[in-house]
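Supplementary Methods. Inverse-folding protocol.

Structures were first reduced to a discrete structure-token string of length 288. This string, shown here, constituted the complete conditioning input.
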């Protein structure tokens, strides 16, 4: 199942992806759920398929006509992995770590597909990071290798936009990873059963103004989905709607000579095989 959230005159609605069309579930059934995260929390995903099966041509929308929301409206936690692709480790200033490097993003740092990714006025060092986003489907603690994937509701595309100057002000990365509206997510939420276990073997790429700047495969993760979930739940309870960004491949802008920073008017795209394409235009922050 492939779902997205879009804006309508009466608020958010869920779109059900059907080929090259989007079924407006609220147009089919006025009582249809309107929030993907709530559907995940309630375990009522099957009800969306039943509604979609009743759709006629009148409830079909064109993808390009939609104004998107972030697919998960209010994640309780946004956890992120750093240094999860060996080639990315080799191009930076850090060494390979024996455990997953975990940091956090805030909801205010996230931005939807086709919305502006804001380049802050305080720094020119805005960088791209194509990432697989994992969405948690049930409350989980002390997961094991045998049951970890039962916690996964699905996946999406993410861009862990990073203000490198601020990321390196201290040994903690939080500031540089959380500037307002620097972290695109979406547009499509793909249920886990649509993809290989643990989202293995998927091509992942980033393009800046049409030029491929990152290209890899999720098989290259040093800490794959299962191992990451087991480690995180040794200490944290994961809850439905929590998001985990699974790290970025090599090719980031700060490692290039000269560095390649995103600038006003640039177009950045993250594409993951069988998941989707996330697109944003860079816009300079407005002066107060």
């Amino acid at each position: 199942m492939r779902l997205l959230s879009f804006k309508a005159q009466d608020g958010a609605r869920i779109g059900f992806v059907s080929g090259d069309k989007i079924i407006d579930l609220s147009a089919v059934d006025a009582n249809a759920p309107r929030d993907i995260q709530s559907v995940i929390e309630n375990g009522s995903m099957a009800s969306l398929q039943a509604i979609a099966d009743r759709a006629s041509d009148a409830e079909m929308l064109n993808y390009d006509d939609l104004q998107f929301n972030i697919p998960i409206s209010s994640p309780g936690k946004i956890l992120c992995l750093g240094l999860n692709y060996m080639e990315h480790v080799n191009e930076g200033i850090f060494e390979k770590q024996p455990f997953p490097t975990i940091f956090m993003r805030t909801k205010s740092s996230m931005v939807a597909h086709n919305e502006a990714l804001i380049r802050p006025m305080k720094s020119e060092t805005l960088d791209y990071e194509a990432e697989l986003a994992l969405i948690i489907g049930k409350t989980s603690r002390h997961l094991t290798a045998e049951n970890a994937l039962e916690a996964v509701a699905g996946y999406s595309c993410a861009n862990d936009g990073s203000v490198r100057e601020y990321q390196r002000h201290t040994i903690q990365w939080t500031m540089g990873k959380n500037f307002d509206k620097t972290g695109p997510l979406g547009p499509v939420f793909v249920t886990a059963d649509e993809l290989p276990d643990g989202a293995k073997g998927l091509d992942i790429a980033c393009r800046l103004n049409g030029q491929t700047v990152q290209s890899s495969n999720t098989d290259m993760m040093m800490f794959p989905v299962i191992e990451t979930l087991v480690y995180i739940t040794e200490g944290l309870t994961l809850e439905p709607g929590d998001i985990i960004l699974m790290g970025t491949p090599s090719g980031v802008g700060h490692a290039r000579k000269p560095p390649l920073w995103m600038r006003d008017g640039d177009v950045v795209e993250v594409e993951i095989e069988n998941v989707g394409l996330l697109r944003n235009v860079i816009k300079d922050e407005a002066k107060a």
